[in-house]
Amino acid sequence: MKIIPILIISVISSLSFAKQPMPEVLVNHDDVIWGFDFLKDGRIIFTERSGKVFVVDPKTKKEVPITGFPKVYAVGQGGLLDVRVHPTNGFIYFTYSEPVGEKATTAFARAKLQDNRLVEFKKLFSAHEPNKEDLHFGSRIEFDGKGHIFVTVGDRDNRERAQDLKYHQGKILRFNEDGTVPKDNPFVSTKDAKPEIWSLGHRSPQGLVMNQETQELWEAEMGPRGGDEINLIKKGANYGWPVVTFGREYYGPKIGEGNQKAGMENPVEHWVPSISPSAMTFWNKNIYLATLSGQHIHRLEMKDNKVVKQDELYKNLDWRFRNLRPGPDGKLYFSTDEGKLGRISQ
Hints:
Blueprint: E1 12-14, E2 24-28, E3 33-38, E4 44-48, E5 53-56, E6 63-66, E7 80-85, E8 92-100, E9 103-114, E10 117-126, E11 141-143, E12 148-153, E13 171-176, E14 197-200, E15 204-211, E16 216-222, E17 228-233, E18 269-271, E19 277-283, E20 286-291, E21 297-303, E22 306-313, E23 321-326, E24 332-336, E25 340-344
GO molecular function: oxidoreductase activity
Protein name: PQQ-dependent sugar dehydrogenase
Signal peptide: 1-18
């Protein structure tokens, strides 16, 4: 991991509530709203971690439950996770924790929506290998606009697997739209490596977004006690966990070999103490992070892929922000662990 001197110093500020437009709440449930995306008709499809799927009309706030999703492993951090609507092929993609006997793993599937029911449901992928831990499933989905889909998988609290190409845990994966493996994935020809792997060395990657202007893939992940990161993802690159990290064990000791090592990527930004970034998006040319333990929306002003200013937004609401996504109306939509789905004007 090579350290490059940064001459631009970022400053973190907490904006006063009076300077922030009041969020409009569209949905108020009692379960974690983990993922959401926009259907072509303007409605929003969203997931609850317990395994439920809904559609809501943001104009009328009318909700409709969606049937047809299989049973999920809704234990610990597991459950029904992300949902993304493909812009052209008619499919809706999901990630979820799949029960496998007494164990579980991260799964990736797609279906179509027809008359408030999911049809043509097909599981495309299950991460190798299932285990009993109920942590760090991931999992965000992102399209590259070129026929490929990226999916994040956490280390499942088996940190050594993040460096082991024989496992999917602790990796960002890349698929074709039908779930097959692209021939140009970096480890397709590597003996014993899982061919779906795009990058490795991740702990709990829950933010993933493609910068549509530059076609660069960005990722946000949670460290342990400190060490949260945002990274610019490169093909075949190693992001260090658990060999290098700015975080510590929850009970105090250091982890790994330090915070830098040759051949491992340095984060664009990191946080100590943790803010727990759970989602990442671009809006008005800035990066926005949904934070859990931070209980705010974190805005990053960027210049030449470096952070020059940071703002903590809506900290006074004490919400655990789970997901963020710009809407077709130009507003920033969010979901929370408290079961809220809403939007913010510019």
